[in-house]
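Researcher: I'd like a candidate sequence for this fold, 164 residues long. If you have to choose between options at a position, lean toward the conservative one.
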């Protein structure tokens, strides 16, 4: 018999990574690569999970439990202002929990260790539905196109100082 945690991990990973070769690949993986986009890149995903909202929330609210459904390793407490680390897709990532609405919503920012410019913001919302729960995940990466980056460097004086 598969326990609640195992069922949730399987269902979440099947839903998120349904076109992937492995369960640990995430639908939002493409956000981690610079695509030269000048506007924020956002991925929205609704996942039907055959668990009650309380069962889903218990998996979301327990940082150590993230290894059951989200990452390979987790050292994070799910409370506002908490900082920690996870290993996601073999990559160590820093995590900062921004907001927690118990039973309903958690938001966090995460980035590859040593690369805070690659930060993405994640919002995870637990929504009750008939006989199941919908987990709504939104991940956003604020990207800067090359021209915006050049303009920012020019405005900061770094380019002019280098030319002198």
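Model: Candidate sequence:
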């Amino acid at each position: 018999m598969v326990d609640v945690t195992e069922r949730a991990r399987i269902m979440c990973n099947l839903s998120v990574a349904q076109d992937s070769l492995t369960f640990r690949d995430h639908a939002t993986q493409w956000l981690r690569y610079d695509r030269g986009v000048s506007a924020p890149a956002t991925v929205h995903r609704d996942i039907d999970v055959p668990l009650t909202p309380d069962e889903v929330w218990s998996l979301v609210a327990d940082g150590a439990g993230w290894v059951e459904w989200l990452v390979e390793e987790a050292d994070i407490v799910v409370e506002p202002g908490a900082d920690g680390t996870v290993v996601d897709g073999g990559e160590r990532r820093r995590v900062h929990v921004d907001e927690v609405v118990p039973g309903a919503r958690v938001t966090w920012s995460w980035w590859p260790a040593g690369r805070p410019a690659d930060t993405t913001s994640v919002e995870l919302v637990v929504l009750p539905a008939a006989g199941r729960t919908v987990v709504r995940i939104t991940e956003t990466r604020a990207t800067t196109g090359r021209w915006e980056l050049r303009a920012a460097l020019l405005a900061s004086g770094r380019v002019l100082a280098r030319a002198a």
